[in-house]
Amino acid sequence: MPRLINTTKCPDGKILNNKLCCVYRKCEKNQVLNKTTGKCKTRKCKIYQNLDNKTGKCVTKKCKKLQKMNKKTGLCIPDKKAIKEKEKKEKEKLIEKERKEQEKIAEKERKRLEKERIKQEKIAEKERKRLEKERIKQEKIAEKERKRLEKERIKQEKIAEKERKKRIIKKKKTVKKIKVKKLKKIKVKKLKKIKITKKKSLTKKKSLTKKQSTLSRFKDWMIKVDSPSLSVAFKTKKEITNVMKIQHDFNALGIKPNDWINDPCYLLNNLKKKLKYKGKWNNTLIKKLDNTIPEAVRDSNVMSKFRLGGDEFQFGSEIGSGSFGAIYSGKTWQKGKSLNKTNIAIKSLHEINPLEFFTEVMIQNELFCGMRGQWGNGARIPKIYFITKYRSSRSTTGWKYIIGMEPLDGDGGDLFKKKKASGGHYKSFLKGLRDLAILLKKLQTKFKFMHRDFHAGNVMYKKIPGNNYRMYIIDFGMSTIETSKGKWLNRITQTFHYKKNFRFNPSHDLRMLILSIFSSTNFRTYAQAELKLLFCSILIGILRYNRMDNDVLFWNSYSDMIHVNDEGFHPDNIINRTNGLLNDKLFSMKIYNFKKTKPDEYERPGGVSKYNAKNSDLFNYIDQILPTGQTLGYVEQHVAKNSDLFNYIDQILPTG
């Protein structure tokens, strides 16, 4: 209880109430009493707060959305966190809206495709029903046609039955007539019997077919790997006796049919042993050797397909031909493995006897086996894979000999038939000619080899990468090689001495090849101007002075007799010339109006030791490209001094 005071005054800060007591003054809710002064004053709030007059409390100031209060300044500033949150929500709403729109579009597309599918199914169902009706209709038509044909067949059978009965009746009548005639012609029958017995005796003399068939069966039996025993394969006594004789001949020769389809060098060694045989190589021995060659069996369905032991081979297109046969592209494979085929070249010889055939095979194998592993990247002699033969009525000898070799693409004449060949075609040809000269040089050094029939048809090629060709030499029927005893071999049955009839000429083959190419119709018709200029450059300095000496046939027939050596066509000279032309940059120029000519049109003028440049077609060409002011006499004098056409053209052409 406050103490009562009698006076009307109270201490500072207090007032007198109704009960005459001194108490503190009551202030408003928004005011605060100062006890020292006793006065009420307005309550103070913080800078970021406002005073609520009703409640008397300090309330924090409210800011707008996306703003917050800065307690230091009491100002509203942007709320970055709220702004980011708002942007995030807006993005989510936008994405959700787009997703719903995409779903609506996808739903519309799905409904459209569903309608399209239903429509297509209806169309397909209609088409199926239409085809079903068409099929039923066709079946009805076919059934009608079948019934018609059946009726026609029954009708034809009835007609045939009637005809057969008529023939039987007619035959019975003729039999009666024959019986009457037989009685009248007894003497004639006796004469016929005598003639028949004579024919039978003649056939007995020609009973070699059975032996020949036994020989064929015996060779086929030896080639097979899983062949049965001899007693099972040949059952009769005659066959077994014939087989024993054949086996004795095979053992005497030391050659088996498998040798002809295996390594050719192994076969060559066996043939070399037989060449040392003391007796003569007569026809009987050649025939026995010929009997050892395995026989190929022609396929009954495909005429170009043959079977040889466990392998098969088939002829393709012709890639070259000669007087004795032709060369074809072909393929070979093991029996039952037709997917794994190997490309080969097949040489078929039909106009050749066994002696000539063995000569060619021996010389080719001698050269191939002697040069094996020494080819490098140049020209080669084709490897022989197998040798066989088969019966043919078209051949004069009754047999066609077949040589399976490594694959080839064409002969030398095909190289000139490329009208649209690239600019580097002449370089490929030059490289091929150089490779042939290098190979001939190797063969001449080792064997003193001469081909003696070396024309473009006996040069084959194979395409290799880089627009180049690998050259091959074939057809060794007229070739000669020197044996170890210093004698020349060109037939198995004979060797002739060096002194009398034959002289080794290393320039013969290349001279014949180059002149045969330059004289050929294919070269004059199809060859490019660069090739013609190339041959002029090779021939300008080494052509003969006599017109007859430049004739290919004369050189081939009489060169062995006249013993002419032409050093200009020596392999070393041709190698140097081709290397020089390959390195010559001026050869890229174009040639126009080059006259087609033969090399034997060059003549030797009377009393002059060099050929006359004015009479040559090469001179006419040079006259066309001469600049004005040059005289023909200067040209003749210059050509006489310098036979290299390229150096000459380089000097007389205008600058630039």
CATH classification, class level of the largest domain: Mainly Alpha
Q: How many β-strands, per DSSP?
A: 21
Task: Calculate the terminal CA-CA distance, rounded to whole Å.
Answer: 141 Å
Structural domains: how many? 4
Order of strands, widest sheet: 9-10-11-12-13-15-14
Mean of residue pLDDT? 72
Helical residue percent band: 40-55%
Low-confidence stretches: 1-6, 198-208, 419-423, 491-500, 544-550, 557-563, 587-622, 630-646
Question: Rg from C-alpha positions?
Answer: 56 Å
Looking at the structure, what is the overall shape?
elongated
Number of helices: 17
Q: What proportion of the residues form beta strands (DSSP E)?
A: 15-25%
Biggest beta sheet summary: 7 strands, antiparallel
Topology diagram in text:
Blueprint: E1 14-16, E2 22-24, E3 31-34, E4 39-42, E5 49-51, E6 58-60, E7 67-69, E8 76-78, H1 80-184, H2 186-205, H3 208-223, H4 230-233, H5 237-253, H6 264-275, H7 283-291, E9 297-298, E10 305-308, E11 311-321, E12 325-334, E13 342-349, H8 354-370, E14 384-391, E15 399-405, E16 410-411, H9 425-447, E17 459-464, E18 468-473, E19 481-482, E20 488-491, E21 494-496, H10 508-519, H11 521-526, H12 529-539, H13 552-562, H14 571-582, H15 617-625, H16 632-641, H17 645-652
Antiparallel strand pairs: 1-2, 3-4, 5-6, 7-8, 9-10, 10-11, 11-12, 12-13, 13-15, 14-15, 16-17, 17-18, 19-20, 20-21
Short description:
Keywords: Coiled coil. Helix content is 46%, strand content 15%. It has 656 residues and is of the alpha+beta class.
